[in-house]
Amino acid sequence: MVVPAALIQSLQTTTGFQQETFEAVHESGEQVVSIRLNPSKEFDTAHLPIDENVNWCEYGRYLKIRPIFTFDPFLHAGAYYVQEASSMFLWQVILQTVPEPAGKKVLDLCAAPGGKSTLLSSYFKEGLVVANEVIKNRANILVENCSKWGDGHLWVTNNNPSHFQAIPEFFDVLMVDAPCSGSGLFRKDPSAVEEWSESNVTLCSQRQQRILADALPCLAENGVLIYSTCSYSREEDEAICDWLLEEMEMESFPIAIEENWGIVTTSSAAHAAFCYRFYPDQVKGEGFFIACFHKKKGESVTKSKYKNLSMTSKLQVQQLQSAIQLSENLSFFDQNEAIRAIETRWLQELSILASHLYIKKAGIEMASMKGKDIVPAHELALSTWFRGGFPLVELDLENALSYLRRKEFSAKGPKGWSLMCFGGLPIGWAKLLPNRINNYYPAEWRILKE
Ligand code: SAM
After folding, report:
1. 302: number of CA atoms within 13 Å, CB side?
2. What is the pLDDT of residue 27?
3. Gap from CA of 179 to ligand 1 centroid (Å)
4. Ligand 1 in reach of 138 Cβ (< 6 A)
5. Does residue 251 sit in the same domain as residue 320?
6. What are the residues whose beta carbons fall under 8 Å from the beta carbon of 318, sequence distance 6 or more?
7. Integer Cα distance of 57 and 253 in angstroms
8. pLDDT tens digit string along 17-35?
9. pLDDT tens, 239-253?
10. Closest C-alpha residue for ligand 1 atom 8
């Protein structure tokens, strides 16, 4: 893979750039593979070719080779997420900037497919993480990945950044992993080179400013902004940081790094913002850029509107809770003929968000009621709130894959709804009948690859 000459030229005076090794690592075709484990879903990792830990993220692991992830039921169970290692540096950033995560409200503004959102969700266990994606079909992938991750405090919205201006000062942390020219992924995806151009770098830079300006009002005073890209271009990186300091009343925040991590610290030209660059010839990961800020001044806050939620009737909650054991402190509401649960402490937040935004997923869909029958929802199967109430049926690899393909499979268990599991982790529902098994794996998520 040959890096565009114009990019090489533009990087000549960029701190840390070493042309020879940078070009060599792109020509090598070498691939670095890494995953991030889900701390809420323990499983036996023996089948994965795990090499070493990712230095800056306690749940990050490098793999020696790239397995065919699609054929690993644990991936579909949300036991891990395939994530590029440099991006996992976000873990270090929040560890150092938000040492007390409990009760914090976090917005991941450009979230699909969900790598950063699931990481944030694992850190803000006692908080609320809203993962937003503006593009509709990408928002569906985000819902899928967040549902598999299984955390009820990880919600999904499908909105334009400007829509968040309706909730000024709402969030304590704002993550903007901005759409960019993508040069940092050239080694991983050589086809990205064809889409790269200097004019696209300029367009991306303007769009990044627009996105940030639109979203910043929803960040509280003293709140934390984390800005990242997978571009090497200063126009999209340090120059944006300078603009944030100059025009948007933000304050730069340093992150402590260890020398042997290979991360390059840079300083923006005009206002010396602390910036962190990841070059693939110097770190074990792809190209990445990240910087962190505090918001100095708040907005004038108008009272937020509330939407009345349609709470589930007491009778139905009793019916549900007598059939399904769940974690405590949940409240139940009705949406699209299904019952959903959220932690009671986030009820007010839900009613504010619901009055301004298009919520694709809040909390966990539990079930729908068909008369006296309870039809359990797929989100419930994957949720960390599920504590029992249906028989668990362990499948072997072959049957688990047939189940995930939504094909016929065999399983032994009592008649009725059962939770299909692989390696002890739930993967979805099936109904065992006297002469057949109904497979309820969601059609749109099924494995297509043979
Ligand atoms: N954070 C994601 C992750 O870690 O998996 C990757 C996000 S990707 C770098 C940028 C995202 O921004 C894409 O999903 C893209 O659809 C979205 N996007 C594109 N244009 C946008 C815009 N004008 N405003 C907000 N988001 C946009």
Report:
1. 6
2. 94
3. 5
4. yes
5. no
6. none
7. 19
8. 999 999 999 999 899 999 9
9. 999 999 999 999 999
10. 179
3-state secondary structure of 248: coil
Assigned domain for 264 exists: yes
- Residue range of the domain that includes 433: 390-450
- Protein residue with least CA distance to atom 17, ligand 1: 110
CB 109 within 8 A of CB 132: yes
Give the E-state strand segments of 6-86 in sequence order.
Answer: 33-37, 50-53, 60-63, 80-82
Backbone angles phi, psi at 260, to 5 degrees: -75, 0
Q: Which helix (H) or strand (E) holds 378?
A: helix 378-382
User: Is 342 part of any domain?
Assistant: yes
213 closest CA partner among 179, 242, 247, 182: 247
Ramachandran angles phi, psi of 219, nearest 5°: -95, 135
Distance CA 230, CA 233 (A): 9
Among candidates 49, 84, 89, which has minimal Cα distance to 66? 49
Which of 295, 313, 331 is the endpoint of a domain? 295
Cα atoms in the Cβ-side hemisphere of radius 13 Å centred on 177: 23
Matching residue, tokens 């549902």:
147
Tell me, yes or no, whether 176 and 206 share the same domain. yes
Global confidence as pTM: 0.97
Find the 183 Cα to ligand 1 centroid distance in Å.
15
Is 367 found in the same domain as 426? no
Q: Which residues contact 296 (CB under 8 A, 6 or more apart)?
A: 221, 222, 249, 250, 251
